[in-house]
Amino acid sequence: xxxxxxxxxxxQGSASRVQSYPLDVEASSTILDCLNQIKWEHDxxxxxxxxxxxxxxxxxxxxxxxRSVLACKExxxxxxxxxxxxxxxxEIAIAPMGNMPVIKDLVVDMQGFWSNLKAVDPYVSTAxxxxxxxxxxxxxxxxxxxxxxGNCILCGACYSECNAREVNPEFVGPHALAKAYRMVADNRDxxxxxxxxxxxxxxxxxxxxxxxxxxxxxxxxxxxxxxQIGKLKNExxxxxxxxxxxxxxxxKTLIHLVKQGGWIDERQFGLQVxxxxxxxxxxxxxxxxxxxxxxxxxxxxxHFEPSAGTQEVRSLIESVQAFEAQSNRSKKTAQP
Length: 336
Fold this sequence. Notes:
This protein has 336 residues and is an alpha+beta fold. It has a five-stranded mixed β-sheet with strand order 2-1-5-3-4. Strands 6-7 form a two-stranded antiparallel ribbon.
């Protein structure tokens, strides 16, 4: 079958352009096979990364039809079937990953990606590994806690699609926080509290995540980075009060109000989160313009009606909280 590959070409510091390559390929051909064919038979100047060709090394990450993937994993037939085509012959668009500057064509500079990973100390603490008599053994159950996050191949797909990283250059990224949770879940590490305090700092850590779900949707190894960020948030919230920070108040107040009424009383939400229950006068003052505008336009709710399913909602939340509390107690008991 004939397919037109529309590849974004770019030299460092110059404007990008799109170059078309019509190829005769099989439906089973991977995107990487097609890029190799372009480079070997049509245009030797095309630049892209590759290595294992077996979805292990993560080198060939790029955007195919608008989403970050491993070029060695996706094939022509599935791409055409997934997105269809209004053109004959069908077209497949290939571009470099996002949130990273382009070096040349499909090759991006990943220095920021690696620096942010290093910032979370993605290794078991040195002190915990000083066991002079014997090796540090784990039970199968303890080791299984590390399986999902341990599958990360650092391909950069989640980082490429991260909306939070795009608007907040201080956010370390989903790849780093997924690795961070691996350290928190590892019973050999003795720096859990220090780690959680670090990941709790402003929007550079877990509170910078906007929960857009893109990292989960593109991860080729099903690491589910957003889920791991959620687990880190839960670990941070254990034992914290609403006075710790606005981010923690946001999470705790939301849960508290939903338990009370089945959904959120937005009048209380603003006062509790932004104004800290009238303790933060600066925060309270910041709400004044919005409040006055809502009142003038008759959009300020004068009363709150609880949801008809409040009891069921409260029961579900309390069941989840009880389960999480039991899990945390079990984890602490299992630690050496």
